[in-house]
Structure formats: structure tokens, C-alpha cells
Fold this sequence. Notes:
Elements (H helix, E strand, L loop, with lengths): L2 H15 L4 H8 L3 H8 L7 H11 L3 H5 L18 E3 L4 E10 L4 E8 L4 E3 L8 E8 L2 E5 L2 E5 L4 E5 L4 E5 L5 E8 L3
Helix pairs in contact: 2-4
Amino acid sequence: MEVVNAVAENIRRIRKTQKLSIDRAAELTGVSKSMLGQIERGMVNPTVAVLEKIAQGLHVSLTELVEHRGELPDTLHRGMDMPGQRLEKGRVIRYSLFPFDTESRSESCQLDIFIGGGYDLPDQIPGSRVYISVLSGVLEVRVGEERYRLENRDSLTFRGSQPCRYENVGNTTVHMIQRIYYGK
């Protein structure tokens, strides 16, 4: 399969799996709607820089955008190969553990929230479910109007369709794992 066609199929499949309109995908990736449309139709051969923007915006690896999908091989994700993304003026670091997987319709990351830091989940996605586990530290989680206090090894699951904020309310860095399952 030609790479341009594989990229077109993969981006279209990932966008539809995540239930994103082309407008919303353009907003998340920073790539114009017309360019995304041309890429999805296999009309243009995007640069690596454009593919990187799309991969980051859709929370998938660059490899997932360009590979021909047959039977999925075992995949090892090395922590040192997945650099952290600094958010909230450097008070939060997000490490991708497993990028979005179309088969399980899920993704996971580690969040490190420094003292006094907080993080808002960027999107409310109908039909999704969020699972979090605090590895260390003290975390306050606001889900809609509810508040939860989680400490070492506490876990919480909630609907991803409502606003959510994580805040470090302790005196050490919060280390936590977040996994999101997207509805069908």
C-alpha cells in the first residue's frame, strides 16, 4: 500500500474512531480543515512536520499514522523514547504510556502534577470513561460538581463527558496514571 494512501486511511479511521468532526480535528491538530480533508482523500503528501502536528493533536504515535495496518505486532513503548509534555506553565508533565489504540479504543498516560499545580481534562467526550490511579501524593479531583480526595494507590473512575480538574493539594508531587476508554 502506498504511504500516502495508508496515511489517508489511518487519519480518517482515527478521527472517526475518536468521533471527531474534521473541524474539531483541525482545531486539535492545528492543521487547517482543507489540508486535513486533502490528506484524508490522499490528494497530498503531507510533510513530517504536518504529520507530527496531527499525531500530537490526535494523541497517537507518528508510526500509527504512516504504517499499513494488518495484524498488530507486540509493541514495546520505552519511557525514555516518550518525552514528557509540559503543561499548565510547567506545573504538570504528561507522559504518554500507550497512545490511542483503535482496537481497544483507549489511551493512557502518566501525569506528574507538581505542588500547587492543577490540570483540566481538555475535552469532554460523550460515551467515554476515565480511570485514574494515584501512585503517590494527594490529589483532589473535581468531576462536575463532585469532589474526591485521592491518596497513594487510590483509584477513581468517572464519565468522561463532564468537566474534570485534577489538583495537587499535598506537599509532594502527585504521580498518577490516567486511562481513557472511548465509547463506540
